[in-house]
Amino acid sequence: MKKFAISVCAGAVAALSSPAFSAIDQRTSHAMHEELIVMDTHLDTPALLVQPGFDIMHEHTYDSDFSQVDVPRMNEGGLDGGFWVIYTPQGPVTEDGFKSARDTALLRAMAIHNMVAANPDTFALATEPEDAEKIVADGKKIVYVSMENAYPLGEDLSLLNTFYKMGLRMVGPVHFKNNQFGDSSTDPDGPQFDGLSPLGEALVKKANELGIILDGSHSSDALLEDMIELSKTPVILSHSGTKAVYDHPRNVDDALLKKLVASGGVIHVNAYSSYLTELPSDPERRKAFGVLMKQMGSLSDMTPEQIAAFKAQRKQIEMEHPAVKATFEDYMAHFLHILKVAGPKHTGVGADWDGGGGVETMMDVAALPKITARLLAEGYSKEDLADIWGNNVLRLLQQAQDYANSLKETAKE
Description:
Largest sheet: 6 strands, parallel
Protein name: Membrane dipeptidase
Helix content: 40-55%
CATH class of the largest domain: Alpha Beta
CATH topology of the largest domain: TIM Barrel
GO molecular function, one term: metallodipeptidase activity
Structural class: alpha/beta
Number of domains: 2
Organism: Marisediminitalea aggregata
Shape: globular
Signal peptide: 1-22
CATH superfamily of the largest domain: Metal-dependent hydrolases
Distance between the termini: 41 Å
């Protein structure tokens, strides 16, 4: 049975730290990886669950259909689960936009529940911090629910209660563009509120009251600082990197990272190539994908045959204009710098699987043991790895729920 925190002797760490990382050392590393509760805090796979014909129980390959998460590959990579994302693209900040996004978000939430209901021997919904260990002990996969982009809530924060009842335990206010809650790190028009809007401040308060972790990934630096200051419980960056390695708006600098850590927060390292390093521009590839995206519409509305045709066209584009990916070393440069600044009790993994994540030699969850092997080789202990892979985010969830429960107890007095 996997356990959260397990120590490892200094001799084993020293051996794994040796430049001569032998096959037997790799086997030792893999065995250690299997003993940990391994979670990723940003699984965008629900976007595939709504596609006709996609079967999470069947083994896929990135080369065949561009997917990165399924049960066979989770087993191969020792991934026990994590936070499955309700993602909604940013649309117009209008009542019609809110309603459309709300429906999309509810369908994504239902898709997560349907995945669990259809495969009860494989998946289990998790809502409490202690659920993770129990679910793994039962031989199942952990399904916490998060929301990337709170835009579907519109201006009615009572909807957060509805999603909470559906299992939501993490929420990020924004995505690529500003919305009613505050400023994105990547809106081409720049900041609108210089951080959180008044409604965004109310969202922080509401999330605290319910016991939901607040996620600052995609937020502007000012919004993240506002959340750190206003939130009564620590904030997470579920899939972010460091500006010290690559100065991209989606990443955070060391000063802000230290503020996050001082408040008890955690940063989970993203594997999205264009956030890790400067990549060569390919105007022809961008143009070809632009044409394809205009043609495709919504994948959830397509027939299996239409989806197959779309993937065939995408493969053709990939063949004619292959993407340049960041390397595993680019990814680890972010990871190791963040560990140096934040420490293993404030660092985790949120690679952005099925949402654009993936680097050379680590293009799906089957390759996750590479991270454990590298961190062991760098001298981090198995106890450190237990924190990185699971304990840290579960601590944040416990703190969020403890605060929410304290409010309930106060109300009773």
